[in-house]
Design goal:
The complex is a heterodimer.
Chain A lengths: L1 H32 L6 H26 L7 H18 L4 H24 L5 H15 L27 H8 L1 E4 L1 E6 H19 L1 H11 L1 H6 L4 H27 L10 H11 L11 H20 L7 H23 L6
Chain B lengths: L3 E12 L2 E12 L3 E6 L5 H8 L7 E6 L2 E2 L5 H7 L1 E4 L13 H10 L10 H14 L15 H13 L5 E5 L7 H16 L3 E5 L3 H7 L2 E6 L2 E6 L6 H9 L16 E9 L7 E6 L3 E5 L6 H8 L7 E6 L2 E2 L5 H6 L2 E4 L3 H4 L7 H6 L7 E2 L2 E2 L1 H15 L15 H10 L8 E5 L7 H13 L5 E6 L2 H7 L2 E6 L2 E7 L5 H9 L21
Parallel strand pairs in B: 3-8, 3-9, 6-7, 7-8, 13-20, 13-21, 16-19, 19-20
Antiparallel strand pairs in B: 1-2, 1-4, 4-5, 9-10, 11-12, 11-14, 14-15, 17-18, 21-22
Helix pairs in contact in B: 3-4, 3-5, 14-15
Classes of the chains: A mainly alpha, B alpha/beta.
């Protein structure tokens, strides 16, 4: 009886802190075995590598919270990348206009996703899958499938005169000073800020609490007077807007509307959000977990790369981490509940 | 003495700090119906879940047919001969497939059946199974199109196709009418004659009187009473289950103050007659009627979930026509819906979050929740309504059904309602919790009008000042809850509401409806 209790509380501890311990252990391991890993620049590099993925993952977390899913985030991000380039290079607008247009596009896509799911009753995976397809196609139409850069030839024979403005490139390339010169890139700051806001929103506001209620039992949430439709639509709009923030930052880093960029964004960010389930034994979508999940993948890849692991192993490593995290979440948490099947 | 099919020895089970089973010893014999009675939270469901392989016991032994029995999972339990028909019927059938497929599904998984489904052969087999169970419907009917009783029969028939040694029936009559239940009882009689050991779990005394050979009462995770001498001591069994004598609830009906909610010429369906009633401040009205009599629809109309076919509602004299639950709540009309696990409980949340869910706005500043305020309000409601728990931070799933229901009703008492609608508030709630809830509803009834929708007449008599009987969406009788003529009330509930074909008018009640 007594040993049973101890093993139960040990299990409880493992579920709660196992992931964080693993994260720290990994950092210590690489600090010892990969020379140069334990430095501020390297740490910032890790953050930078996961910033855009992380922002998208925070968006998808919001849709997971209301019991949905958003497969269109990757294509919203690449659409924002192309749209911002199109606005500045071909329409010759300012950075401000480009950002506003992109954010509006993200919000609109989210709104359409939400309406398809809520009003047309299309299942979330299918609605956002369709939207993903549509956007992948749509972003190629204005440029006839070409990437956008200053000086490109336009269909009417003229040459694109516009440029990526300095203010826009600042978003992707500027680095703030922090202890060291030019240490902290803007995307990392944006990622941390958004993570903080989403964390507060989901965890500590009544709107977040109601969104979790919808995800757990939509009928019950509706019957206490929650406007379920509105919250679901808002979740998809947040997801769309954050995805387009990711696209803007990507465009600002690349400095051109590259049609081939951002292929991995969807899978990486969904993986980060799902890995986040395992953090602190939450067993449900949560902003802190999502950010930690993105960092975990970043640390692992950075460390392995510095230890000369080949680049083509990266997807395999991410997949393995995801599967392990899912087992951790669903198997161990169901054991904790005293039953074996969820 | 009959052969022992299943023996339980010292079963114990805890969930976190909650010690649910405290050493259960029980023998189930072939060809006997053992009725298991117990208040909610007594541990009945946990016991069943251990028997059917859903939970592991922490300690103790089980034997089946003389051999040790420790099912690894639900499928293992079934293959060993322990088959359970759960309370919610649709767990036992596949609604989108036809009767034939449902009855023969298990054969499709047997080795050596071949790749292609021979529909004709399947139907022939299914017909044989159906006939042996006394089912007469066309086996090509889709199960979803059948009525509840037939679906239940098919769930049991499927269970019987596996020729079980032990059949567990968990509240099988909870959604059946009297005649449907009688069909079930006939089936049970037949199975008993075939030598199946049956564990029958129910709250309903009438069921237990009809089928039980032995009664086992459970209370607080132990067996508190065991009755197998003829005639069975039903009163003793109830006492053992409750730990105290059942007492009649004494109600001194109040007439109420000013009108709060009025229905004028309200038609629930396009072809139903109009309903008129006035609900007054401070009074509790019970609407009662059989399944399909319109009580559920009336509750839905009042809470903005459905539109009436015709008619007007007045709230405090002003037109009231909510388009959604959100609008109803904003007008001060609150509803605790029936089927709490589907309609009310947020399984991922703790007690405090569940309780404060409707009024989170009141517990937040600039949208940020104050956990302290939530906990304070919840813990005070827990004390007042009498929820048995360790703390307000317990997961809602650790509570028994009755205590969960107290939380679900308590959530609507945190703010003052103008109209409080309670749809089947005593569903799956033991008598103890039922009394607690009823008492607290009556205590707090001043300042609002309370409408309770119940199918059981007993429940109506326990809580209401006034009872309105619905039958086929019209008011079939209205009674002030003082020395009610029960025969009359029952006649109003079950009698034909409309003028029957023979031309005989429906006997009208002396106190019959207004207008």
């Amino acid at each position: 009886m007594n040993s049973n209790d101890t093993s139960r509380s040990a299990l409880e501890l493992a579920i709660r802190y196992g992931f964080i311990v693993l994260l720290c252990g990994l950092a210590v391991f690489f600090s010892i075995y990969a020379s140069g890993f334990a430095s501020a620049r390297s740490a910032v590099f890790i953050f930078q590598s996961v910033a855009i993925t992380g922002i998208l993952a925070l968006g998808v977390t919001c849709t997971l919270v209301v019991g949905g899913f958003d497969l269109s985030i990757g294509s919203v991000a690449t659409s924002a990348l192309m749209l911002s380039a199109y606005t500045m290079v071909i329409l010759e607008q300012s950075a401000f206009v480009a950002v506003v247009v992109c954010l509006a596009m993200g919000a609109l896509v989210g709104l359409i996703n939400g309406l398809l799911i809520v009003k047309m009753r299309v299942p979330d995976l299918l609605a956002t899958l369709g939207m993903m397809f549509l956007l992948i196609g749509l972003q190629r139409i204005p440029t006839q499938g070409n990437s956008i850069a200053t000086g490109m030839n336009l269909p009417d024979g003229s040459v694109a005169e516009g440029t990526f403005s300095a203010a826009f490139l600042w978003l992707g390339r500027h680095r703030f000073d922090l202890f060291l010169d030019r240490l902290l890139p803007v995307p990392v700051v944006v990622f941390l800020l958004i993570a903080l806001i989403i964390w507060l929103f989901l965890g500590y506001t009544r709107h977040g609490r109601l969104m979790y209620a919808i995800g757990s039992n939509e009928r019950a949430a509706g019957l206490v007077g929650t406007n379920v439709h509105r919250y679901k639509i808002v979740a998809y709009m947040i997801s769309g807007m954050l995805a387009s923030v990711g696209g803007i930052l990507l465009a600002a880093r690349l400095g051109r509307g590259d049609i081939a960029s951002g292929n991995n964004l969807l899978l990486d960010s969904v993986a980060a959000a799902l890995i986040g389930f395992a953090v602190l034994g939450a067993a449900r979508p949560n902003a802190f977990g999502t950010a930690a999940g993105a960092l975990f993948v970043g640390i692992l890849l950075q460390g392995l790369t510095m230890m000369n692991a080949p680049y083509y192993m990266q997807d395999f490593v991410k997949g393995a981490v995801l599967v392990a995290a899912l087992v951790f979440t669903f198997y161990l948490s169901s054991r904790r509940g005293g039953r074996r099947t969820a | 003495m009959k052969e022992v099919t299943c023996t339980l020895n010292g079963l114990e089970k805890s969930f976190a700090r909650n010690h649910v089973l405290r050493g259960i010893d029980l023998q189930l014999r072939a060809g006997e119906v053992t009725a298991l009675m117990g208040a909610n939270g007594a541990g009945k469901s946990t016991l069943v879940k251990i028997l059917c392989g859903y939970h592991f016991a922490d300690s103790g032994r089980m034997e089946l047919g003389g051999a040790p029995y420790a099912p690894a999972d639900a499928a293992d339990a079934i293959s060993k001969g322990v088959v359970t028909v759960h309370q919610s019927i649709d767990d036992g059938v596949i609604p989108d497939l036809d009767v034939a497929t449902n009855l023969t599904l298990d054969r499709l998984t047997e080795p050596g059946v071949g790749l292609f489904v021979n529909d004709r052969k399947l139907r022939r087999q299914a017909r044989a199974v159906a006939e042996s169970m006394g089912l007469t419907m066309d086996v090509r009917t889709r199960v979803a199109d059948l009525d509840v009783a037939d679906r239940q029969m098919i769930a049991i028939a499927r269970a019987m196709a596996r020729s079980p040694k032990l059949l567990i029936l968990d509240e099988p009559t909870s959604s059946l009418s009297a005649s449907e239940a009688e069909r079930l009882f006939n089936l049970i009689d037949r199975l008993r004659a075939d030598g199946v050991a049956i564990l029958y779990i129910s709250h309903r005394m009438s069921d237990i009187r009809r089928v039980a050979d032995r009664i086992v009462s459970m209370r607080d995770g132990t067996i508190s009473g065991f009755f197998d001498t003829e005639p069975l001591d039903y009163v003793g069994a109830v006492n053992a289950m409750l730990g105290h004598q059942m007492t009649e609830v004494d109600i001194d009906p109040v007439t109420g103050g000013e009108a709060v909610l009025e229905a004028r010429e309200l038609r629930l369906f396009a072809d139903s007659p109009p309903i008129d009633f006035t609900a007054r401040e401070g009074e509790v009205i019970a609407f009662t009627g059989l399944l399909g009599s319109g009580t559920t629809e009336l509750a839905e109309v009042l809470f903005g979930l459905a539109e009436p076919a015709d008619g007007v509602l007045l709230l405090d004299g002003k037109a009231y026509r909510p388009a959604s639950a959100t609008e109803a709540v904003a007008c001060g009309v609150f509803m605790s819906p029936k089927d709490r696990s589907v309609n009310a409980v947020i399984a991922d949340f703790d007690i405090a979050d569940n309780m404060t869910l409707p009024f989170l706005k009141a517990f937040s500043r600039f949208s940020f929740l104050s956990e302290r305020a939530q906990r304070r309000a919840s813990s005070s409601m827990i004390d007042r309504i009498g929820v048995k728990c360790q703390s307000e931070r317990d997961g809602i799933g650790t509570l028994s059904g009755g205590n969960q229901q107290k939380v679900m009703i308590g959530r609507w008492l945190l703010e003052d309602a103008r109209v409080l609608l309670l749809d089947e508030p005593f569903q799956g709630v033991d008598i103890g919790a039922r009394r607690d809830i009823g008492k607290y509803i009556r205590q707090t009834a001043a300042g609002r009008t309370t409408l309770v929708f119940v199918a059981e007449i007993d429940e109506a008599l326990e809580i209401a000042d006034r009872i309105i009987v619905l039958n086929e969406a019209m008011i079939a009788g209205e009674y002030v809850n003082r020395d009610v003529d029960l025969n009359h009330l029952v006649a109003a509930v079950s009698g034909p509401a409309r003028v029957p074909a023979s031309g005989q008018p429906f006997p009208t009640s002396p106190k019959q409806a207004i207008a």
